[in-house]
Amino acid sequence: MNKLLKDQSKERWEYSPALESTDHIQLKEKYDLFINGEFCPSESEKYFETINPANEKVIAQVAYASNKDVIRAVSSAKNSYNKYWSKLKPSERGKYIFRIARLIADRAREFAVIETIDGGKPIRESKQVDVPLAAAHFFYYAGWSDKLQFAFHGKTHNPLGVAGQIIPWNFPLLMAAWKIAPALAAGNTVVLKPAETTPLTAMKLAEVIQEADLPPGTVNIIPGDGETGKNLVQNPEINKIAFTGSTEIGKFIQSSLAGSSVKYTLELGGKAANIIFRDAPIDQSVEGIVNSIFFNQGHVCCAGSRLFIQEGIEGEIIDKLKYRMESLILGDPLDKNTDIGAINSKAQLERIDHYVRIGQEEGGKIFQSSCSIPDKGYWFPPTLFTEVSQSHKIVQKEIFGPVLAIQTFRTPKEVINKANNTPYGLSGGIWTDKGSKIFKISKEIQAGVVWANTFNKFDPSSPFGGYKESGIGREGGLQGLLPYVSLD
Amino acid sequence: MPIVSNKFNQRVDQIGSSERVKRLFSRSIKKESKFKALHLILSMIDLTTLEGKDSPGKVRQMCYKAAHLHDDFPNLPCVAAVCVYPNLVKVAKDALVGTGIKIASVATGFPSGMATTKEKIIEVRKVVKEGADEVDMVISRGEFLRGNLDFVSEEISAVKEACGGAHLKVILETGELESLDNIREASFLAMESGADFIKTSTGKIAPAAEPTAVLTMLEAIRDYFNKTGKRVGMKPAGGISTAKQGIQYLVMVRETLGHHWLTPDLFRFGASSLANDVLMQIVKQSKGIYQSPYYFSVD
Hints:
Oligomer: heterodimer
Number of helices of chain B: 12
Shape of chain A: globular
Distance between the termini of chain B: 45 Å
Number of strands of chain B: 8
Strand content of chain B: 5-15%
Strand order of the largest sheet of chain A: 14-15-16-13-12-17-18
Distance between the termini of chain A: 64 Å
Structural class of chain A: alpha/beta
Number of strands of chain A: 20
Number of helices of chain A: 15
Radius of gyration of chain B: 19 Å
Order of helices and strands of chain B: HHEHEHEHEHHEHHEHEHEH
Radius of gyration of chain A: 23 Å
Strand order of the largest sheet of chain B: 7-6-5-4-3-2-1-8
Largest sheet of chain B: 8 strands, parallel
Shape of chain B: globular
């Protein structure tokens, strides 16, 4: 039993607020569509509000792209493809992409603050993860632009044309970078639709692209909702679709593109197994659990939402995890000490609430950290469930929130069987001090990435993608170029 | 005597530990919380001089400083203790009369520990008799590294017994143990053999208080407390010279062991020049500007 959990010291040393300054950021009240190198109003003349999920205040109005706008954007991308981008020397393409990378790095703080205001994630994460990784992706793929013959040795590669790209709200700028960078490097032009709740960093990226002086229409950014995305997917001039989001929408895209020549990549949901063996380094495993499920409020497709602990150490791990959860600071995402920010949207909060209620109704034993919840905004405390099994809904469904389901296991065979007992297969984690065990288990887990003694580590040079219903195709690394070329 | 340390999981992942340190050290401590932390740090300092050239004069000057950190500034705490070589304990004792500041003496063939157990016991008895409230012993690293854990354990127990009422701090000399696995094992060995405090280093070997070593020891203290209910103290020593480092370690203690450990009874800094940097920060916090270092006495 963790005696520290009961510790009620009278003398306490609390951290004072340490807010990131916001006076350096430049935000407009209204953002228009970015088509053909210019900001222009929507044909529909419709605008929608984007709000700060931490206080529910409106940050800006953003133009809504109707089908007419989609058609405009796609034809401008096609025009740029035919007239400029596919005609450019590869090394010149690379220069443009390097320029985007540098501009993002230059404005890292501004991007980080806007990402945090618009999406609710802690400033610590947007500063340390989202923005630097986004810049790193552009840097990485810029380097490939004039070296593609080495990526596809012995084959002739050709760009596809116009890529329609639809990205989610959990890592808005980073996902834009994952999509745009390889597409441009391989010689394609782009129409990108950011998520409805988090369009702002994409619009700032549009400003960067304008400043980088890319040929007009090479990258078009058109905010909107599901309908906009649907129009983009079904546009006949599109040559390639790249989508990151829910498995449900992924299935829709797959069926609507069936029989067409449009190439597609889908990066979908997950319900990853994070496996702790008895011979694991305990304190580092506990930290790994925190990083696997509470990073970005659990809004991570590759989150380790199913924890498997080998019997014998479950008591120690769970006690330590609870203690660690109590030290996580939930609150203002702009505070540099915040660990858990706001839930991205009201709809997402309702979804998390819904599943947690089901978990309790099913008889799971719940523990939540006792942090206080702000009055305004959307919040959910770090939560874990014990006494659940593979038959419980909260073990089966992707919750996409800070909710961990814990099961125990006895043997490697049993845990591999259970880890793979899911329609998903995006990621996994193993914790053990024994190297041979890492190789054996990671080979048998059906998932695109398996981390050993760490979790949620990303690098532009490393491919990422799913098995089974977690997706098709890879993003990142050499493999991430393949979906953007045709090979002869 | 049975070695109980294998009751505890011994594995530490070095990369995971460094990442945890990085995250702890990135906490942003401002305003009120910084002010409070700076005062806390002063009260936790073992003001130290451990040089071959130490003399009674030097120790007397340092003792005065220990009790009068910065008289221009009201309501400052004094340091927790002064830490000196055995032959200077008497000098310190006389110099600190009436101050409430404790006297810590290194002992047991400091810093190498290359003496017989018998000699070590004699030295410990002597410093306690001459007025040391706390004894900072070194473990026999050679014996530990060749797997002779029984020897190390028995030696610590014997020293503990010789300490009588004095508090025992056990220096692991983490820079010589090298791996975090070793540091964790040595921590348990020391705690189970009677240590009141565990301490990182002598300050004579680089690296001294290395952050992952400190974190590993704090985690061992936590596990030991959870198993036994006994609160063991922690003292990082060597290389901690800035207020910023001091605050980072307070964050580490707070988030690993809780508020309860944030007291000089359970946490100390072994340092010679930390106090002045902390004093400068305290003055800056209240006056808004940095004062010249000439205003802070060097003793």
